[in-house]
Amino acid sequence: MVLYNDYLFSHGGATRRSQFIDLEKKYLGPLPTSTYNLRYFRRAKVQKISHIYLSVDRNYYSVPHRYIGHHVEVQYNKETVEVFYNFQRIAKHQRSFRPGSYTTLGDHMPSSHKVYNDWNPLYFEQRASAIGASTLEYIRRLIAQYNYPELAYKQAQGILSYAKAYGATRLNNACKRALLHHWASYQTISNILKNGLDNCIFRGCWFFPTFGVMKENIPHVSSTDQTQLSRTSAA
Questions:
Q1: Could you give the CA distance from residue 150 to residue 155 in angstroms, rounded to a whole number?
Q2: What does the DSSP assignment read for 7-39?
Q3: Contact criterion met (CB below 8 Å) for 37 and 76
Q4: What is the CA 65 to chain-centroid distance, rounded?
């Protein structure tokens, strides 16, 4: 290759190397200091909670609330996530790789501007109140856990939807039991209902099955006493 580049052209005394040095080299810029960061593209809809969902990472990124309901373009690489509407960038975040996480800027949230759509705390409280007092208390606790109530709305919607699947009574009983836990979540209610743990009578800190034998550890009670309690409840 060296000999080839230094070979004289037949029509003059120039070589490929000399032409490069004399004519082309001055136009070259410095090489990038870092490797190219490949970008990916997705379409998404801004949800009622003022976030878009990035399915590849299974997490959420906030967008200014005025774009709720609009379709946007999401561009992301290994470091950042950017959201564009009509070719204008409307949001930029550090990319998160923790599934189920919310990356939120407070200024994006409707509640920060006293702007509310049909999903708001009062809407979920009214629906919960129609199911039962424990459900209302649980939904209020769930929403109060977050700095921005919008971050609780999808969980609240999921919890209240169980009234159709399991009935209002079972859901209210599940919420009554779940109120013993410090942190409210959709997953807690889901586990209680799917495992039939709502079918318990609440007495102090203990739960006694109303039918069948339910395996449950009761604090400060010996294994022998727990067995006796199970036999009594099954009788």
A1: 10
A2: PBPTTSS-BHHHHIIIIIGGGPPPPPSS-----
A3: no
A4: 17
What is the DSSP track for 39-67?
-EEEEEE--TTSEEEETTTTEEEE--GGG
Which is it for strands 102-103 and 59-62: parallel, antiparallel or unpaired?
A: parallel
Sheet arrangement for strand 88-94: 40-45, 71-76, 80-85, 88-94
Residue 113 in tokens: 């501007």
Q: How far apart are the first and last CA of the chain?
A: 93
> Which regions of 104-203 does DSSP assign to beta strands (E)?
200-203
Look up the pTM and report it. 0.64
Q: Are residues 47 and 104 in the same domain?
A: yes
Identity of the amino acid at 78: K
Domain carrying residue 47 = 40-110
Q: Identify the H or E element spanning 73.
A: strand 71-76
Give the total residue count for the chain.
Answer: 235
83: part of which helix (H) or strand (E)? Answer: strand 80-85
Residues 104 and 76 in one domain: yes
Chain mean position to CA 113? 22
Question: Per-residue pLDDT tens for 92-147?
Answer: 999 999 998 999 999 998 877 766 678 889 999 999 999 999 999 999 999 999 98
Do 211 and 186 fall into the same domain?
no
Tokens of 44: 């998404």
Find the radius of gyration of the CA atoms of the chain.
Answer: 30
